[in-house]
Target: Ferrochelatase
Amino acid sequence: MRLYSNKSSFSHDEMPVLGVLVANLGTPDEPTTNALRRYLREFLGDPRVIEIPKWRWWPILFGLVLRTRPPKSAAAYQQVWREDGSPLLKIGERQVEGIQRRLQELADAGPFAVELGMRYGNPSISAALRRLREAGAQRILVLPLYPQYSATTTGSTFDAVAKELMRWRWVPELRMIGQYHDDPGYLDALVASIRQHWAENGRGERLLFSFHGMPQRYLLNGDPYYCQCHKTARLLAERLELPAGSWDICFQSRFGKEEWLKPYTDETVITLAREHGVKHVDVVCPGFSADCLETLEEIAEENREYFEENGGERLSYIPALNCRQDHIDALVRIILHHAQGWPEARLDRDWDQEQELLRASAQRAKQMGAES
Model:
């Protein structure tokens, strides 16, 4: 018999809260081999990420990958780890604080509770959802910080949310944001960050839009990620008024031997330097809402070395949007747009009337024998 979990306490005069789950991919607890082995076991064991039957993939995962990759990944994480911990985690915490603060500034809306949940590692999505429940969230909006939808990221996040809620007795009203790859606020924030970088650091001869890669067969099987990446890049180029031939789109972080989305970022920077004589290239990663291993180490360090070793002089990485105020504002607008129709998202609530109704409800409940 399944036992369903519930909020630790309940009061009939409790004002319902709109919970916002801000989700991202995740990070190991520390940059060590053991921590990376735990993290990679969870990440690469997700069938959304590796679409290979378990009987084929798991002998490779446990027999080879988890034996050889953790030490290499730990060394890479040590290059980007900060005194206060993982960059992705710390940036995510500040993003959540910024979103919570901006929502609280909406005088007649709310109340809101915002929590950070990682698909892999800590703080987990399950733990974040339980914290929202304890805060009184009867409605929850899930915002995966992946502008472009992919089954490997956004889809997997939805899986984790559903898995946790299957254990709850009182399942909240639920909405999930699938993508925001063409949201004007998101695009404007990226344009502002690129222009600011150019103003402070000079402008390269070519601008690369580098997105995380995935196997080509995922696209052929119907994943819209590739198309949404191209749309984001095109809209950014239009807003920046970039002439043809001055920008490119490419895909990074491939894993394994099968064909992934092309062109590959590492091959692109090598070709630009070696065959086209480009000396200064700028790289921005519009699919990453926060800087992490793939941007700070793979792009800013590894691909910079590829570029310089093949004749380039400067690869300039343009940071992710991170905690920029225009980024936080864009995310808040996206949240409010998708929360339309829920009372907490209204900007004209009659708080006195609602609290009176709650008090009356609590009084009736107590007359019927309820404790609170």
